[in-house]
Amino acid sequence: MKKLLIAVGVLIVLGGLAVVLLASNLDRIVKAAIERVGSDTMKSPVTVNSVNLSLRSGTGTIRELQVRNPEGFPPQPALRLGELVLAIDPASVQADKLVVRTISVTDGELFLTGGVDDNNLKKLMANLRSSSGGTDPQAPSTTESSRKLQVDELTLTDLKLNVQMDLPVVGVFSTTAKMPEIKLAGLGQGPEGVTGTELGKLVMKRVVDEVSPMVVQMIRQKTGQSLGTDGKKALQSLEKAAQGVGDLFKKK
């Protein structure tokens, strides 16, 4: 009996040490997981500056998350998120589905580089679609081992769009604009939840849905400024280019 009690005591101590080690290394583990899974999913380097999480309070902060341009484009970020503040239901940490109450993203930048038919965001979206072998961002994952998520509310504020494109007739077109606030709610609330990849698809689709009309409007404004009332054919060409930008971002 004495040996049994000693063995139980040793197991309890080891278990406690394991929890302490997990808690002390949790930030580093999560950071590495974001960079590894993100890079595999986007097929482009994903980096994070720092992660600070608290299992007890269910809160966390991720700083300077960057998605680099895909191959064939300048070696610079395509997306930069300055700060992500999370609120997680602590009771769901060990459950099959992790419940995230809120995600608040601030101080972000989106960089659109390339042409109408070939640009960095179009390539990243194609990579994201192909990462799970499907085209529907709301289709549930078939990978049983994928951790399911529920995100009650996700907000993106203070985002900036940077455009550097080579457009027909106009040529090199550069501009910067502030993006409107983006809100998503009720993601993965069903029993199946969503995987991290599916969540990324839903968020990116919503972002590019906002980018599309902004880019179209920018091109039209540039058309009026540079061409005036002359060059009807040039105007028609630019209208088609603007529509092309919108169409490529509407693809699922």
Provide a short characterization of the protein structure.
It contains four helices and eight strands.
Plain-language structure description:
The protein is α+β, with helices and mostly antiparallel strands. It has one domain (2-250). The chain is built from 4 helices and 8 strands, in the order αββββαββββαα. The chain has helices at 2-42, 120-130, 196-227, 232-250, and strands at 46-54, 59-68, 77-88, 97-114, 148-156, 159-167, 171-178, 182-187. Strands 1, 2, 3, 4, 5, 6, 7 and 8 form an 8-stranded mixed β-sheet that branches. A hairpin with a 3-residue loop joins strand 6 and strand 7. The longest helix is centred in the N-terminal third of the chain and has 41 residues, at 2-42. The relative contact order is 0.11.
The computed structural class is alpha+beta
Global mean pLDDT: 76
Return the domain count. Answer: 1
SS strand fraction: 25-35%
Q: Shape, please?
A: elongated
Distance between the termini: 64 Å
Spell the H/E element sequence.
HEEEEHEEEEHH
* Quantity of strands, as a count: 8
Helical segment count:
4
Question: Quick one: biggest sheet?
Answer: 8 strands, mixed
Could you tell me the radius of gyration in angstroms?
Answer: 22 Å
Helix content: 40-55%
Q: What oligomerization state is this entry in?
A: single chain
Low-confidence stretches: 1-23, 133-145, 228-232
What characteristics describe this protein?
alpha+beta; disordered N terminus; 41% helix; 8 strands; 252 residues
